Amino acid sequence: MSFGGARRNGIALSDKQRIAWLRLIRSDNVGPATFRDLINHFGSAETALSMLPELSRRGGSTRAIRIASESDAIRELETARRFGARFVGIGEPDYPPALRQIDGAPPLLAMKGNLATATQPAVGIVGSRNASISGAKFAAMVAVETGRAGYAIISGLARGIDTSAHRASLDTGTIAAMAGGLDQPYPPENITLLNEICDGNGLAISEMPFGWEARARDFPRRNRLIAGVALGVVVVEAASRSGSLITARLAADFGRLVFAVPGSPLDPRCHGTNQLLKDGAIVTTSGQDVLEALAPISDIDLFTPPEANEPVEDDSRPMILPPDDTERAQIVDALGPTPVEIDDIIRHTGLAASAVYLVLLELDIAGRLHRHPGGMVSLLMPD
Asked: Is 105 part of a structural domain of the chain?
């Protein structure tokens, strides 16, 4: 199967918008979901930036919020340019189509390499850093077969299975999802591999700032990128507490297919993959297993992004007045440490959805709201 060129639609950000978007996502307490809600509420990143101090105050914060400066954003954009990279916004043509579908997709991705690879349908291949010879060979075999069929291979640039998958797909297209900034690759021994990826038919992507050294808590975010970009994730050798199982779980949460390679029950590297098979993952003994399962869902037109998942700039949008103190108290009182659905808050309080969403934004910017998978929220309780 050959896909040819993937559809590349979307609207390019202006230079002014790109600076404002970068400032907003780099400001305190602004994650991807909050970023989307801010722009959709206020009409533009510029207006949202101007409202952050007021939102933080109304949300109950007693400290001034740190807002990324224009000079900081321009400096990071210039660093990216010198590095041969660029920032791509979620609504732009070069943004990975499948990633646009997930809740909380990064509004901006730093990318370096062949941007056309980002719009190919992709397969994730992940697994043990301490891979066996047979595991590494199998990962390479699947990467070659699926790559020749028109899929890009996405993995995490780690030792072992990731390295084998990337190397086997250098010619057909491979994507390295990074936990740190693009200029801070990990592990150091894969710097040469990363250069081969970016200089050839591949691509490196990251949502982290330039200069950011990956920490343990950043790798699940990297795994989220892999699961979001891919239509399916193949797990080759994963121990019971492997980070690859996080990628598999995220892939399942996103509605992607999860493939697992069976292994010896005596090999600890296979305990996680064998458990995935017990949990319903697709048994995978060849690349053809992956291709046959993905064939019905590989039409890129299936991934036309729903508007609800993306920030839409529209300065003509009328400003919604904030609720009064009584209504704000009702909403805060309805929250607690247990995650709840926003629709339940609206029904419980009887207030307008716009008022509820605005108060949640205030609490979020003030650092008092915890967002959970599935769009649920809870109140962060004081220590």
From this structure: no
Range of the domain at 122: 110-301
pTM for this prediction? 0.90
Containing H/E element for 282? strand 282-283
For tokens 């700039």, name the residue.
Answer: 313
Tokens of 95: 């943004």
- Residue 161 structure tokens: 């299975």
Q: Cα–Cα distance between 234 and 151 in angstroms, integer?
A: 13
Q: Return the amino acid letter for 367.
A: G
Residue 252: exposed, middle, or buried by beta-carbon count in 10 A (0-12, 13-18, 19+)? middle
CB atoms within 10 A of CB 341: 13
Count of CB atoms within 10 A of residue 351's CB? 18
Are 55 and 160 in a shared domain?
no
Q: Which residues of the chain have pLDDT under 70?
A: 1-9, 299-309, 314-319, 383
| Alpha-carbon distances, residue 353 vs 119, 332, 335 (angstroms) | 35, 14, 15
Domain total in the chain = 3
**Three-state secondary structure readout of 110-145:** EEEECHHHHHCCEEEEEECCCCCHHHHHHHHHHHHH
pLDDT at 308: 53
Same domain flag for 241 and 373: no
pLDDT at 322: 83
Give me the pLDDT at residue 150, please.
95
Q: Report how far residue 357's alpha carbon sits from residue 353's, in angstroms, rounded to the nearest whole number.
A: 6
pLDDT value for 309: 61
